[in-house]
Amino acid sequence: MSETILSVQDGGILRVTINRPDAGNAMTDAMALELTAIVAAAPKTSRMVLLRGAGKDFCVGRQAPPAPATTPEAMERRRFSDIVFDTYGTIRNSPIPVVCVVQGRALGFGCAVCRCRHHQRAKPPPSRYRKCRTHPGDFGARRAYRRVQL
């Protein structure tokens, strides 16, 4: 565990904190890889993952790497993108709920991570809301807590 991604096991909840408040919790590639590994291993010990950012922002995006001296080839660009796509896929496909507690800004990577999280409903929304695929008061955290019986 590094100082930039903190994880604490609290009973059945794995509390994960993005810990770079001085940089708005901007994610580096190493942090994204670590977050992916933590979420992938979480089902062995936890019933849910609670992801939050330290400080006033959740995550202001991905920290841009230094500009390359030459234009990167396609495979090199793909490796750069695969890091974050693997993180999104791990969160989306996790067998346990991954709930994001968002305070402040959630931009770029932070916004996408929030969209990957589990949306759990205690019951289907009324038919009048199914058409537009939204449901008033559909707060994933509240419903996920109820669903895993914490």
Primary descriptors:
150 residues, alpha/beta, 2-enoyl-CoA Hydratase, Chain A, domain 1, 5 helices, 4 strands, globular, disordered C terminus
Describe the structure.
- There is one protein chain.
- The protein has 150 residues and is α/β, with parallel strands linked by helices.
- The protein folds into 2 domains: 114 residues, 2-enoyl-CoA Hydratase, Chain A, domain 1 (Alpha-Beta Complex), CATH 3.90.226.10; 31 residues, no CATH class.
- 35% of the residues lie in helices and 15% in strands.
- It contains 5 helices and 4 strands.
- It has a 4-stranded mixed sheet with strand order 1-2-3-4.
- Helix 2 links the parallel strand 3 and strand 4.
- Helix 1 runs parallel beside helix 2 and helix 2 crosses helix 3.
- The longest helix is centred in the middle third of the chain and has 19 residues.
- The two termini are 26 Å apart.
- The C terminus is likely disordered.
Condensed summary:
The protein has 150 residues and is an alpha/beta fold. It is 35% helix and 15% strand. The chain has two domains: 114 residues, 2-enoyl-CoA Hydratase, Chain A, domain 1 (Alpha-Beta Complex), CATH 3.90.226.10; 31 residues, no CATH class.
